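Input record (one chain):
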Amino acid sequence: MPEHHCSLCHIGLEGVGVQRGGQTLLHDVSMHIHCGQLTALIGQNGAGKTTLIRALLGELPHSGSIRHVDDHGRDIPHLRTGYVPQHLQFDKEMPVTVEDFMAAAFTRRPVWTGVSKKTRQAVTEALATVEAAELAQRPLGRCSGGELQRVLLALALHPAPDLLVLDEPVSGVDQNGLKMFLDTVLRLKETHHMAILLVSHDLHLVREYADHVVLLEKTVLAQGGAESVFRTEQFDAVFGQGKEAR
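The corresponding structure, as predicted from the sequence alone:
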């Protein structure tokens, strides 16, 4: 369980529960997602990871509290969240460049009327943040998995969020793309001191990159450093591969 007198800026979940259609999807979820740290959320399919993300994004009603708290324990209103999904569903034959795709999110002006100089500059700066400025004129359908995830990351960072949620963002991405994406995320964590929540089934990735790990099975079964969580009886019960993960 998290400390109730935490002195760090964080997003604090206390007793969060979600019910739909008479079913309990989450109950009594209490955890902290600290600013400047990467928190990994792990668990089997059906454990409630997606439900928790939707609650954090304000898409599902919930009981309990979700608070953004500064380092003096004071509430910060209007939690800004950025979200990178596992996949982007789109027609790869669609004649849309990365710049067009991002411009549609950056302005209310229809892209088919042209991209203004101001919007083009904003897109370039956003892509440069994730070391992807060279992708601006590339057709979206010709981006590799890793390149597309960096584009989505650039979108999630505009405007700069308090909490960045990464939902299995590197599933199916090659090793080069994986390293580039995660190295970019780590750099952003350090330079912008943002809170990052990573949902992943890749326990080796979690061990290498996570500062804090939360094991979920509709409630929090264990949390702490990766090594300590991987050695718990709860981890063995959920994954049945504790010795392998260690």
